[in-house]
Amino acid sequence: MTDKNRHFIFGYGSLINATSRAKTGETGQVWPVKIAGYQRNWSVMSTEFGMSSVAVIPLKGAYCNGVLIEINESEIPSFDERERGYERSQIQSEQLSAYQGQALPKGTIWIYHSHEIAQPTQECPIALSYVDVILSGCLELGESFVQDFLSLTQGWHSPLINDRQTPRYPRVQPELNTQVLIPLLEPVTNISKQELSISYES
Questions:
Q1: What is the count of structural domains for the chain?
Q2: For residues 19 and 143, what is the distance between their CA atoms, to the nearest angstrom?
Q3: 91: containing domain
Q4: Does the residue 153 lie in any domain?
Q5: Per-chain mean pLDDT for the chain
Q6: Backbone phi, psi, residue 136, to 5°
Q7: Looking at the domain assignment, is residue 43 inside a domain?
Q8: 202 assigned to some structural domain
Q9: What residues contact 86, with CB distance under 8 A and at least 6 apart?
Q10: What are phi and psi of 50, to 5 degrees?
Q11: Which of 103, 124, 157, 173 is the 20 to 30 A CA-CA neighbour of 118?
């Protein structure tokens, strides 16, 4: 297969989580990376599930971390459907830098992005059932990756709810160990440790 025929997605939210990726399509190798020229924000991308999502917008001088995911070209329509409301654009490999300094593959690299941000609201807040999936995926990639996700995401001050008892996120993973996420979420969210401690099994 030539470089031209290899396709990749830059995933910066729930696609960081391997189990979540598998719910949409078959993917190949994954590389932890940072991208230059995009800023990640909490944003209301759809009111369908009553929750906000992360979205990136092009912004000079900004950075965002995520994973470079190899996919078969035939899988693109499935990911397009998953990322409804976002625009898929091609990015340049020069915008990416690897965490471990390893060489990154060549090919066609796609990113799902927005052009504007709609701040989360009480009706569509940040939902922990979604955050849990992202952070659990981040933890698999190391502490520095997790801290970069937290610090390189704008809008943590927005309305946030613990919806684990009645999850709003359709690809929720109730089997996750949410206790390990408490010390990560305490510094960036505006809800109490007691509320953060409420799990799917509580």
A1: 1
A2: 19
A3: 3-196
A4: yes
A5: 95
A6: -65, -35
A7: yes
A8: no
A9: 45, 55, 112, 113, 114
A10: 65, 40
A11: 173
